[in-house]
Amino acid sequence: MNLQPVGILGTGKYVPERVLTNQELEQMVETNDEWIVSRTGIRERRLAAPDQATSDLAYEASVSALRAAGISAEELDLIIVATITPDMFFPSTACILQDKLGASRAAAFDLSAACSGFIYGLATASSMIASGMYRHVLVVGAECLSRITDFTDRNTCILFGDGAGAVVLGPVAEGRGFRAFELGADGAGGDLLKVCGGGSRVPATEQSIGERQHFIQMAGSEVFKFAVRIMGNAAEEALRKAGMGKEDIDLLVPHQANIRIIQSALNRLQLPEDKCMINLDKYGNVSAGSIPIALAEAVESGRIKEGDTIVMVGFGGGLTWGASVLTW
Ligand code: UT7
Q1: pLDDT tens digit sequence for 130-142
Q2: Is there a contact between 57 and 117 (Cβ–Cβ < 8 Å)?
Q3: How far is the CA of 280 from the centre of ligand 1 (A)?
Q4: 223 close to ligand 1 (CB < 6 Angstrom)
Q5: What is the CATH architecture of 6-175?
Q6: 258 touches ligand 1 (CB under 6 Å)
Q7: CA 313 to CA 296: how far, in whole Å?
Q8: In this predicted model, what pLDDT tens digit does every residue of 176-185 receive, in sequence order?
């Protein structure tokens, strides 16, 4: 069967206005700017306004991506929102977004793969377009992580931020578009990074709230070790499937969790820092939003040109990981 080549027709991003600096965090928990910058590379992150939820951030990023793609909302066949901070349990954030956009023809669903969610979304959407099932799919990574962050826990509250990135996928010319995906999961590592309260196992009760079970819990150094191993592995495996090597990479767009994790991936892939998109100093870790925000900024700043080989790679709770190879 001849598959239709699928690529990115337009990108968009949105970050809320409110900046939360390391200096402000110094007033909230026992930490300091020097520790945060040297251990993570993060200087500030964005916080959604009290009246903003994930779908509001997703909407702004989506409008930009649709404009860049020259596609109207009515032309969308499907909307996938990758998020771990949906507006509510249901309806899905994708359905709320569909309504806000007026994308009346589009099917819509949320996808839960934590920080790997955007790559999982790209793989899902691109297979559906390649098979001929759909033509235009909006894939969004959007988070309001500040709503599930424990601002009394210095191990986690310094890391996370809010924001959204979006892409419109559609048919592209032969020789362009996605070349390969590598997705993976290791559910045995699920306890390393989780929010256990509020689901069917631990429903919201006064006790669960008192025990702060509705916030992110993380075994930081374990996740760190996993991330260092998996970023290089996933990128190399996606390149191998694409019939390419690390020397073919023009730009790496990694999940923005920690500068030391990104640097170890660069070492492993023997890439100089100028072949990598890094913006975690401004936004921290935005989970599913990190990669599409970084991609949108790479496009905005002219760092991607036609024919470039772009590798996106991420890891996160689940545990999950994902990588893609794309000819722009
Ligand atoms: O999207 C995926 C999400 N998660 C991640 O990517 C997280 C991956 N992990 C990490 O990025 C790092 O493990 C952290 C940044 C979370 C922590 O860095 P680390 O170098 O692994 O530090 P550590 O957890 O080993 O802690 C070292 C010390 C500890 O003190 P003691 O026990 O040695 O006295 C911590 O209590 O640093 C302390 N510490 C802090 N000190 C100042 C932990 N957090 C802070 C803080 N400020 N915010």
Answers
A1: 999 999 999 999 9
A2: no
A3: 16
A4: yes
A5: 3-Layer(aba) Sandwich (3.40)
A6: yes
A7: 15
A8: 999 999 999 9
Element (H, E) at 63: helix 54-69
Is 31 near ligand 1, meaning CB less than 6 Å away?
A: yes
Whether 6-175 shares its CATH topology with 178-327 is answered: yes
**Rg of the Cα trace of the chain?**
19
Rounded Cα gap, residues 176 and 86, in angstroms: 33
62: tokens are 């989506």
Which residues have a catalytic role annotated? 115, 255, 285
Q: Are 260 and 39 in contact (CB under 8 A)?
A: yes
Check if the beta carbon of residue 57 is closer than 8 Å to that of residue 147: no
Residues 62/63/67/70 CA torsion (nearest 10 deg): 60
Contacts of 120 (CB under 8 A, 6+ apart): 82, 111, 113, 183, 320, 322
Domain boundaries, the chain: 6-175, 178-327
Q: Are 151 and 29 in contact (CB under 8 A)?
A: yes
Q: Which CATH architecture has domain 178-327?
A: 3-Layer(aba) Sandwich (3.40)
What pLDDT does 1 receive?
A: 58
261 CA closest ligand 1 atom index = 11
What one-letter code names the amino acid at 193?
Answer: L
Cα(30) to ligand 1 centroid in Å equals 13
Specify the ligand 1 atom closest to the Cα of 285: 1
Q: State the alpha helices, DSSP H only, in 218-258.
A: 220-241
Determine how many CB atoms are found less than 10 A away from the CB of residue 320: 25
Low-confidence ranges of the chain (pLDDT < 50): none
Looking at ligand 1, which residue's alpha carbon is closest to its atom 2? Answer: 316
> How many C-beta neighbours within 10 Å does residue 184 have?
16
Q: What is the largest CA-CA distance in the chain?
A: 60
Measured in Å, residue 300 CA sits from the centre of ligand 1 at: 33
Distance CA 271, CA 232 (A): 11
Q: Which ligand 1 atom is at minimum distance from the Cα of 156?
A: 16
Q: In the 8-state DSSP scheme, what is residue 160? A: B
